[in-house]
Prior knowledge:
The protein has 195 residues and is α/β, with parallel strands linked by helices. 42% of the residues lie in helices and 14% in strands. The protein has helices spanning 3-11, 19-31, 34-50, 85-93, 121-130, 144-157, 182-190; strands at residues 52-53, 60-61, 75-82, 99-103, 135-138, 163-166, 193-194. The strands form 2 sheets. A 5-stranded mixed beta sheet has the order 4-3-5-6-7. Strands 1-2 form a two-stranded antiparallel sheet. The longest helix is centred in the first third of the chain and has 17 residues, at 34-50. The protein is elongated and about 60 Å long. The model has no long low-confidence stretch (mean pLDDT 91). Residues 77-172 form the Toprim domain.
Amino acid sequence: MSRIEELVKLLSRLPGIGSKSASRIAYHLIAGDEAYNKALGESICQIKERIHFCPTCGAYAEDDECEYCSDPRRDQSLLCVVEQPQDVVTIASSGSYQGLFHVLGGAIDPMEGIGPEQLSLAQLKHRVEEGSFKEVVIATNPTEEGDTTALYIRQLLKPYGLSLTRLASGLPIGGDLEYADRLTLARSIRGRVSF
Length: 195
C-alpha cells in the first residue's frame, strides 16, 4: 500500500469522510503548505495529552476544570444535562444558555447494552443534592433513546422539587444536537417547556 493510499484509508475512518473526500483531503495536504501539515500533525498527536474530561461536568477541558465550570459568571442555579461533551459546545455557542452543564456520556439504549448505570446519572444526582440548582434543562437528543433518558432523569430528580424542563420543539426528531443550527437551538432553549 502506498503512503497516499494509507493516508486516504486513515482519513476515511473519520466520521462523515468517505473515500472521495478522504482522497481530496490527502491530495490537498500533499499540495499544501508543509508548515501547515506539521502544525496539523502535531495538533492531532497532542490532542489526547492536552484534552481530558472535566471532573465536575464531563465536558472537554484543557485545564483542571472546563471553561464553563470555572466561569463564576455562569448562572449557578441552572443545570443543562446533555448526552455528549460536544453538545456542551453546541448549546453554549447558541448564546441563549448561561448556566452550567452535566454530560451523561450517552443515552439509555438497552439494545446496545447501555443502561442507567453506564451513564453519569449517579454523579448528576450527587450534583443536584450538593448544588443550589433551581432548574434542570434536559437537553438529550430528540430520539427514542434521548426521550427514554429524559424520562429516567425526570423520575430520578423529581423528589428534589426542581423545575425540570426539556428543550422545546424546533429540533428535528431523530437528529443530534451537534448538527442543529444556532438559530434553531437558540429558539429551542428560549422556548423550553416543563417536563
